[in-house]
Automatic annotation (TrEMBL), chains A, B:
The keyword RNA-binding does not apply. Keywords: CBS domain. This is Transcriptional repressor CcpN. It comes from the Bacteria. Residues 82-138, 147-214 form the CBS domain. It comes from Sporomusa silvacetica DSM 10669. PROSITE patterns: CBS.
Length: 214, 214
């Protein structure tokens, strides 16, 4: 829709890209036309975002296009805008009770916390299933045996962009990220669990974008 | 970026919206300016997608804006562009072997097929975990006991838009949809499994869009 369709617009964009900042008068001289003849083409190029006008300096190239607009739109959305409520169990919970908590809350991942809401580990359905088919007594098994412990957990924050969090989900091959705040504890840094960011949140966001709601 | 910033552009858009199709000359007359004075504003409005020009008819209103462009961009992507390879087991597989197949292929959902690749059911990690913590003998249990059978399965097709498929994932609260082709079998219609569409595919697509790759 916002493609540059005319040859003159492409020529102008190329001149601004290679010679910017450059004035409208200088561009006109290069193309052997009047400044007035370029007025609407320059307006379109500025409006499309591909070039920008800086007063008393001239036109310069930004390289932005529709794709960039899409990227900018996406990068504006923060984790806090789409995150879910975290579901947590304490470190002394059994594997069985952790799985029951998963089912009761209909979530695929629970966060294991200690000292209030300080992140200690994470348990996914995959972790739970791996132990459950091993024929173990789940009621006797402490959650610490099957959880992924803190140093290995990938986290996000409410201020991080949804895009960056989604990238973490894909690159780390996990279904869920704890949304955390960094807190100071004696001699260390700890994470306080404040939310949950999953592929479901990203999929829902994608649907809302497709419906024009984001 | 493509916001209409000038009052005159807003006035023109309003005239086209209420009186379109309308010629540039008629718009100029309404605003008491020359046709030439409107040239760049009309060009910007057409370029932004908010109005369109139809030869020998005039300008008419589309109501499109950046948000619409985003929506259009999203609706162009098909399931076939982002789907994964399906992981299947046959109807005579045990629950235990089905779960092993899940782990070996690192997927959260397997499709149960009969007569080649005709869809009969679907098993998620959640289904498997529910049975596994019940203390049942998984090696003796047939997959038919824990699978969701065909009439209840939500499917998608390669030609469906990724947006519509994502909407199905959210509204049906499932992690995965079988991508199917419709085939005729004697006395009935059946689905042939040709792919797998998950929240991971949608999340990856979102990341690619954010990177300007889609």
């Amino acid at each position: 829709m916002i493609a540059l369709t005319t040859l003159r617009q492409k020529k102008i964009a190329e001149i601004v890209r290679t010679s910017g900042p450059i004035t409208g008068k200088q561009i006109a001289a290069r193309l052997f036309v009047t400044r007035e003849a370029l007025r609407s083409d320059l307006a379109i190029l500025v409006m499309s975002g591909l070039i920008e006008a800086r007063p008393k300096v001239g036109y310069y190239y930004t390289g932005k296009n529709v794709r960039t607009l899409l990227t900018e739109q996406i990068s504006k959305i923060k984790v806090r805008d789409i995150q879910s409520v975290p579901v947590v169990v304490t470190t002394n919970t059994s594997a069985y009770d952790t799985i029951v908590t998963m089912f009761l809350n209909n979530v695929g991942t629970v966060f294991v916390v200690e000292s209030g809401s300080i992140l200690a580990g994470i348990v996914s359905r995959k972790d739970a299933l791996k132990v459950a088919i091993g024929g173990n007594d789940m009621k006797e098994m402490p959650i610490k045996v099957l959880m992924t412990p803190l140093p290995k957990i990938i986290v996000t924050t409410p201020e991080e962009s949804a895009f960056k969090a989604a990238k973490k989900l894909i690159e780390s091959e996990v279904d869920s990220l704890p949304v955390v705040g960094v807190v100071s504890v004696p001699g260390n840094t700890a994470y306080e669990v404040v939310g949950r960011l999953t592929k479901t949140n990203i999929t829902r966001l994608f649907v809302e974008m497709g419906e024009g709601k984001q």
